[in-house]
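2024-03-11 09:14:02 DEBUG pipeline.ingest accepted 1 chain
2024-03-11 09:14:02 DEBUG pipeline.ingest length=225
2024-03-11 09:14:03 DEBUG pipeline.predict start
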Amino acid sequence: MAGSNKLMDPIGRLMGLRYKSHPWHGIDIGPESPKIVTTYIEVVPTDTVKYEVDKVTGYLKIDRPQKFSNIIPALYGFIPQTFCGANVAKFSEEKSGIKDIEGDGDPLDICVLTEKEITHGDILVQAKPIGGLRMLDGNEADDKIIAVLKGDALYGDYNDVSELPKAVVNRLRHYFLTYKNLPGEEKICEITHTYGVKEAHQVIEHSIEDYQRRFDFLDAALKTV
Protein backbone atom coordinates (compact mmCIF):
# COMPACT_ATOMS: atom_id res chain seq x y z
CA MET A 1 0.00 0.00 0.00
CA ALA A 2 2.23 2.81 -1.26
CA GLY A 3 1.36 6.45 -0.76
CA SER A 4 0.47 8.76 2.07
CA ASN A 5 -2.13 7.89 4.64
CA LYS A 6 -5.45 9.41 3.62
CA LEU A 7 -5.84 11.12 7.00
CA MET A 8 -3.11 13.64 6.19
CA ASP A 9 -5.04 16.34 4.32
CA PRO A 10 -4.54 20.12 3.83
CA ILE A 11 -6.49 20.91 7.02
CA GLY A 12 -4.17 18.70 9.05
CA ARG A 13 -1.08 20.31 7.55
CA LEU A 14 -2.38 23.81 8.27
CA MET A 15 -3.14 22.88 11.88
CA GLY A 16 0.43 21.65 12.15
CA LEU A 17 1.70 25.18 11.50
CA ARG A 18 0.11 26.40 14.73
CA TYR A 19 -0.07 23.31 16.92
CA LYS A 20 2.35 20.48 17.56
CA SER A 21 1.22 17.38 15.68
CA HIS A 22 0.40 14.28 17.69
CA PRO A 23 3.27 11.84 16.91
CA TRP A 24 0.88 8.94 16.36
CA HIS A 25 -2.02 10.59 14.54
CA GLY A 26 -0.73 13.86 13.11
CA ILE A 27 2.40 12.75 11.24
CA ASP A 28 2.27 11.23 7.78
CA ILE A 29 3.90 7.85 7.24
CA GLY A 30 5.39 9.17 3.98
CA PRO A 31 4.76 8.78 0.24
CA GLU A 32 7.24 5.88 -0.19
CA SER A 33 5.69 3.63 2.46
CA PRO A 34 6.32 0.77 3.12
CA LYS A 35 9.77 0.99 1.49
CA ILE A 36 10.65 4.17 3.39
CA VAL A 37 8.68 5.16 6.49
CA THR A 38 8.64 8.20 8.70
CA THR A 39 9.49 6.98 12.18
CA TYR A 40 9.03 8.61 15.57
CA ILE A 41 11.89 7.76 17.94
CA GLU A 42 11.07 7.41 21.63
CA VAL A 43 14.21 5.74 23.03
CA VAL A 44 17.91 5.78 22.11
CA PRO A 45 20.73 3.47 23.31
CA THR A 46 22.04 5.98 25.88
CA ASP A 47 18.71 6.22 27.72
CA THR A 48 18.61 4.73 31.22
CA VAL A 49 14.82 4.99 31.39
CA LYS A 50 12.21 3.86 28.90
CA TYR A 51 10.30 6.72 27.34
CA GLU A 52 6.92 6.28 25.68
CA VAL A 53 4.47 8.61 23.97
CA ASP A 54 1.39 9.37 26.03
CA LYS A 55 -1.46 8.29 23.77
CA VAL A 56 -3.78 11.10 24.83
CA THR A 57 -1.52 14.15 24.82
CA GLY A 58 1.19 13.04 22.39
CA TYR A 59 3.95 14.13 24.78
CA LEU A 60 6.86 11.88 25.63
CA LYS A 61 6.63 10.48 29.15
CA ILE A 62 8.73 8.23 31.37
CA ASP A 63 7.31 4.73 31.20
CA ARG A 64 9.73 3.08 33.62
CA PRO A 65 13.41 3.01 34.60
CA GLN A 66 15.40 0.30 32.84
CA LYS A 67 15.48 -2.63 35.25
CA PHE A 68 18.95 -3.85 34.38
CA SER A 69 22.11 -2.84 32.53
CA ASN A 70 20.80 -4.05 29.17
CA ILE A 71 20.20 -1.18 26.78
CA ILE A 72 18.23 -0.90 23.57
CA PRO A 73 20.78 -1.63 20.80
CA ALA A 74 19.15 0.67 18.22
CA LEU A 75 16.91 3.69 17.93
CA TYR A 76 13.43 2.58 19.00
CA GLY A 77 9.98 4.00 18.40
CA PHE A 78 6.94 3.50 16.19
CA ILE A 79 5.56 4.15 12.74
CA PRO A 80 2.89 6.90 12.82
CA GLN A 81 -0.65 6.15 11.67
CA THR A 82 -0.26 2.40 12.16
CA PHE A 83 -2.15 0.15 14.58
CA CYS A 84 -1.68 -3.46 15.63
CA GLY A 85 -5.21 -4.77 15.37
CA ALA A 86 -7.11 -7.60 13.73
CA ASN A 87 -5.20 -7.67 10.43
CA VAL A 88 -1.78 -7.73 12.10
CA ALA A 89 -2.99 -10.42 14.51
CA LYS A 90 -4.40 -12.59 11.71
CA PHE A 91 -1.17 -12.28 9.74
CA SER A 92 0.79 -13.27 12.83
CA GLU A 93 -1.41 -16.33 13.25
CA GLU A 94 -0.87 -17.34 9.62
CA LYS A 95 2.90 -17.00 9.81
CA SER A 96 3.45 -18.46 13.28
CA GLY A 97 0.81 -21.22 13.27
CA ILE A 98 -0.32 -20.06 16.72
CA LYS A 99 -4.03 -19.45 17.28
CA ASP A 100 -6.03 -16.89 19.26
CA ILE A 101 -3.55 -14.04 18.77
CA GLU A 102 -4.80 -10.49 19.28
CA GLY A 103 -3.30 -7.16 18.26
CA ASP A 104 -1.63 -5.30 21.12
CA GLY A 105 -3.55 -2.08 20.39
CA ASP A 106 -0.44 0.04 19.89
CA PRO A 107 1.25 1.60 16.86
CA LEU A 108 3.71 -0.66 15.07
CA ASP A 109 7.10 -0.78 16.81
CA ILE A 110 10.29 -0.23 14.86
CA CYS A 111 14.00 -0.26 15.68
CA VAL A 112 16.36 1.69 13.43
CA LEU A 113 20.02 0.81 13.02
CA THR A 114 22.55 3.59 12.50
CA GLU A 115 26.25 4.15 13.03
CA LYS A 116 25.57 7.63 14.40
CA GLU A 117 25.28 8.41 18.10
CA ILE A 118 21.88 10.05 18.44
CA THR A 119 21.59 11.35 21.98
CA HIS A 120 17.86 11.84 22.52
CA GLY A 121 14.46 10.74 21.31
CA ASP A 122 11.35 12.77 20.46
CA ILE A 123 12.61 13.08 16.89
CA LEU A 124 11.52 11.98 13.42
CA VAL A 125 13.75 9.93 11.12
CA GLN A 126 13.39 8.38 7.70
CA ALA A 127 13.86 4.62 7.98
CA LYS A 128 14.13 1.77 5.48
CA PRO A 129 12.51 -1.44 6.79
CA ILE A 130 14.57 -4.55 6.01
CA GLY A 131 12.86 -7.19 8.15
CA GLY A 132 11.39 -7.82 11.54
CA LEU A 133 10.93 -9.99 14.61
CA ARG A 134 7.61 -11.79 15.01
CA MET A 135 7.20 -11.27 18.72
CA LEU A 136 4.34 -12.40 20.93
CA ASP A 137 3.73 -10.78 24.30
CA GLY A 138 1.44 -13.32 25.91
CA ASN A 139 -1.25 -13.78 23.27
CA GLU A 140 -0.70 -10.36 21.66
CA ALA A 141 1.09 -9.65 18.38
CA ASP A 142 3.97 -7.29 19.15
CA ASP A 143 6.02 -7.24 15.94
CA LYS A 144 9.31 -5.35 15.94
CA ILE A 145 10.18 -4.00 12.50
CA ILE A 146 13.93 -3.85 11.87
CA ALA A 147 15.03 -0.91 9.74
CA VAL A 148 18.11 1.08 8.82
CA LEU A 149 18.46 4.84 8.86
CA LYS A 150 18.01 6.13 5.31
CA GLY A 151 21.38 7.17 3.91
CA ASP A 152 23.37 5.79 6.86
CA ALA A 153 27.03 5.29 5.94
CA LEU A 154 27.31 1.89 7.65
CA TYR A 155 23.81 0.39 7.51
CA GLY A 156 22.15 2.34 4.69
CA ASP A 157 23.00 -0.15 1.93
CA TYR A 158 21.46 -3.17 3.70
CA ASN A 159 18.21 -4.20 2.00
CA ASP A 160 17.23 -7.33 3.91
CA VAL A 161 17.72 -8.53 7.46
CA SER A 162 19.52 -11.61 6.12
CA GLU A 163 22.40 -9.33 5.09
CA LEU A 164 23.02 -8.10 8.64
CA PRO A 165 25.74 -9.64 10.81
CA LYS A 166 24.16 -12.35 12.96
CA ALA A 167 25.46 -10.64 16.10
CA VAL A 168 23.35 -7.55 15.35
CA VAL A 169 20.15 -9.57 14.98
CA ASN A 170 20.96 -11.71 18.05
CA ARG A 171 21.50 -8.55 20.11
CA LEU A 172 18.06 -7.25 19.11
CA ARG A 173 16.45 -10.60 19.84
CA HIS A 174 18.10 -10.83 23.24
CA TYR A 175 17.01 -7.34 24.24
CA PHE A 176 13.36 -7.81 23.35
CA LEU A 177 13.23 -11.22 25.02
CA THR A 178 14.69 -9.97 28.32
CA TYR A 179 13.92 -6.27 28.83
CA LYS A 180 10.61 -6.89 30.63
CA ASN A 181 11.67 -9.76 32.87
CA LEU A 182 13.13 -9.87 36.37
CA PRO A 183 15.49 -12.74 37.27
CA GLY A 184 13.56 -15.87 38.11
CA GLU A 185 10.34 -14.68 36.49
CA GLU A 186 8.61 -16.74 33.85
CA LYS A 187 9.13 -15.28 30.40
CA ILE A 188 5.94 -14.08 28.74
CA CYS A 189 7.51 -12.87 25.48
CA GLU A 190 8.63 -15.07 22.63
CA ILE A 191 9.98 -14.49 19.14
CA THR A 192 8.69 -17.12 16.77
CA HIS A 193 11.03 -16.14 13.94
CA THR A 194 12.90 -13.39 12.16
CA TYR A 195 11.48 -12.36 8.80
CA GLY A 196 12.77 -10.48 5.77
CA VAL A 197 11.91 -7.28 3.96
CA LYS A 198 8.92 -8.62 1.99
CA GLU A 199 7.16 -9.79 5.13
CA ALA A 200 8.05 -6.55 6.93
CA HIS A 201 6.31 -4.59 4.17
CA GLN A 202 3.24 -6.80 4.57
CA VAL A 203 3.13 -6.22 8.34
CA ILE A 204 3.34 -2.46 7.77
CA GLU A 205 0.54 -2.57 5.21
CA HIS A 206 -1.68 -4.60 7.56
CA SER A 207 -1.00 -2.12 10.37
CA ILE A 208 -2.00 0.79 8.12
CA GLU A 209 -5.26 -0.98 7.29
CA ASP A 210 -5.86 -1.59 11.00
CA TYR A 211 -5.23 2.08 11.73
CA GLN A 212 -7.64 3.28 9.08
CA ARG A 213 -10.33 0.95 10.42
CA ARG A 214 -9.72 1.79 14.09
CA PHE A 215 -9.47 5.56 13.64
CA ASP A 216 -11.90 6.10 10.80
CA PHE A 217 -13.72 8.62 13.01
CA LEU A 218 -10.69 10.96 12.75
CA ASP A 219 -11.03 11.04 8.98
CA ALA A 220 -14.77 11.74 9.27
CA ALA A 221 -14.17 14.49 11.83
CA LEU A 222 -11.62 16.27 9.65
CA LYS A 223 -13.98 16.19 6.67
CA THR A 224 -16.60 18.08 8.65
CA VAL A 225 -14.23 20.91 9.61
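2024-03-11 09:14:41 DEBUG pipeline.report The first strand starts at residue 37 and ends at 43.
2024-03-11 09:14:41 DEBUG pipeline.predict end
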